[in-house]
Amino acid sequence: MIRNQWYAVLESKEVKRGVLTGAVRLGEKLVFWRDAVTEEVFCIADKCAHRGASLSRGKILSGRVQCPFHGLEFDGAGRCRLIPANGRNMEVPKQFLVNSYTVREAHDFIWIFWGSRTGSLPQLPWFDDIDDTMPYISMRDPWAVHYSRCIENQLDVVHLPFVHYDTIGRGGQTLVNGPLVVEEGSDFFIYVYNALDEGHKPLKPEEIPPPAGKRQYLHFRFPNLWQNYIIDRMRIVISFVPVDEENSLVYMRYYQSFIRVPLLKGLVNKLGMLFSIKILHQDRRVVETQLPRKHPTG
Ligand code: FES
Ligand SMILES: [Fe+2]
C-alpha cells in the first residue's frame, strides 16, 4: 500500500456521535469516534497500550476512549490520560500511547493520512468538477482482493466486451484503439475508443485525435479515487478503500442532478444505482479470482 497519502476510509455517516466505530483499514485495526461538541472525528489504533484489548469495545467518556478491560482512557492523540487503578492524581507514564492518525472530513468521507506526518500534508484528493451540493446515493461492497486489483480493473478497457458483454460492453467491440490516457499530475483521464474488429490494426494512442468537446471518460485520482464521467450531471464515483492485503471495500456513489422531480428522481437514482451495481458485480466476479490477489506493483 502506498504510504504518505490521504485515503478516504469511511463515509461520514458511518461515524456517529457517542459511538465507537472499529474498522480495519490499510491493514490496521482502527477505532474512530466523533466529538459530541465539535463533531471532530478522531482515529487511533484499536489496541490498548496496556494489554492489547480492542478499544472499540469500550466507550466514550468526556471525549476520550475508555478501554473495556481495565479502564485506561485515551485521547484523540492516542495518549493515555488516566489509569484508574493508579488514581486520578497519578501521572501516566509516557509509554502508554497508541498510534494516532491525522483525520479530515470532506465530501461526506472520513479521510486519514497514512504515513509519516513530517512537514506539511498534501491536499486531500478529490474531483474538482464534482460540487458537494450534487445529490448522490451510495453503497459499500466488499471485494476479496487487494485494492490495487480493483483499481487495475477500473482502468482496464480491454475487458469491457468480455466481462460486460451484456451491459456496457455490449456489441462485441473487442478491438482496442489506444486507449487515450491523459496524465495531469495525480490525475489520469482515460478515453475509450473500442471498436468492432473489421480486420484493421488498432490505432496507437498518438494516432487518436484529442477528444473534441465533452465526452465520456474515466478519471483516476491517485491513490484510490475513480470516477466515470458520463455527463456533467451524472457520475459514478468510487473510493477503493484498502482493508488489508487481501480485502478491499468499494464505496460507490451514483451522482445525478439532471432530474429534480422528487418521485422521478428517486426512481432514476434507484435504477442508476442498480445498473451500476450490476456492472460492479460483473467486475467483482472475475477480479476476485485473480492470483495473486495483489497487483505486483501494489
Ligand atoms: S487492556 Fe486496556 S486497560 Fe488493560
Ligand atoms: Fe468493468
Overview of this protein structure:
The chain is mainly beta. It folds into 2 domains: 5-114, Rieske Iron-sulfur Protein (3-layer Sandwich), CATH 2.102.10; 136-287, Naphthalene 1,2-dioxygenase Alpha Subunit, Chain A, domain 1. It is 13% helix and 36% strand. The chain has helices spanning 147-154, 160-163, 262-287; strands at 5-11, 21-25, 28-34, 41-45, 59-61, 64-66, 73-74, 80-82, 100-106, 109-114, 136-143, 175-184, 187-195, 217-221, 225-231, 234-244, 247-256. The protein starts with a strand and ends in an 11-residue tail after the last helix. The model has no long low-confidence stretch (mean pLDDT 95). Bound molecules: FE2/S2 (inorganic) cluster and fe (ii) ion. FE2/S2 (inorganic) cluster (FES) binds at residues 48, 50-51, 53, 67, 69-72. Fe (ii) ion is lined by residues 153, 159, 163-164, 283.
User: What's the N-to-C terminus distance?
Assistant: 6 Å
The oligomeric status of these chains comes to single chain
Poorly predicted sequence stretches spanning 5 or more consecutive residues: none
Question: Which CATH-level-2 architecture of the largest domain?
Answer: Alpha-Beta Complex
**How many domain modules?**
2
Secondary-structure element order, N to C: EEEEEEEEEEEHHEEEEEEH
Number of helices, counting only DSSP H or I runs of 4 residues or more:
3
CATH class of the largest domain: Alpha Beta
Strand order of the largest sheet: 11-17-16-15-14-13-12
- Summed over residues and divided by their number, the pLDDT gives a mean of 95
How is the main sheet built? 7 strands, antiparallel
Q: Write the CATH homologous superfamily of the largest domain.
A: Naphthalene 1,2-dioxygenase Alpha Subunit, Chain A, domain 1
Sheet/helix structural class? mainly beta
The CATH topology of the largest domain turns out to be: Naphthalene 1,2-dioxygenase Alpha Subunit, Chain A, domain 1
Q: Give the bound compounds.
A: FE2/S2 (inorganic) cluster, fe (ii) ion
